[in-house]
Amino acid sequence: MTTINDPTVVAEITDLYLLYEEALCNNNLEVMDSLFWDAPEVVRFGIAENLYGGDEIRNFRQNRPNPRIEREISNLLVVSFGKDAATVTLEFCRIVNGVERFGRQSQTWYRFTEGWKVVSAHVSLLPV
Description:
Layout: H1 7-25, H2 29-35, E1 43-45, E2 50-52, H3 54-62, E3 71-81, E4 85-96, E5 99-112, E6 115-125
Parallel strand pairs: 1-6
Antiparallel strand pairs: 1-2, 3-4, 4-5, 5-6
Pfam families: AtzH-like
InterPro entries: AtzH-like, NTF2-like_dom_sf
Keywords: Plasmid
């Protein structure tokens, strides 16, 4: 039977997610790239873009018009499934063009031999 919410796995993914959040807010491309699976199968659905594969995700980040992201996160939830799979979900609030916007984010993480990687990600803003 699969163990749900193994405390060690939940702690590992929580730490990795917080590392990702810091890299995202500070536009640390090297860290963000290192945490995403570099494969054609990785997917990131963003606010206005659908990105398939590590190259598209990396290219988007390198060319983002506003590379600094300031936001507050809430309702961070990490759920692990066995020793090698986990999900992260959260809500966030940020100012976009002078307007307070609320959004949500989800990531699926998988443990490869080289370590944990995001294999699927989604970011969306709620309607105003």
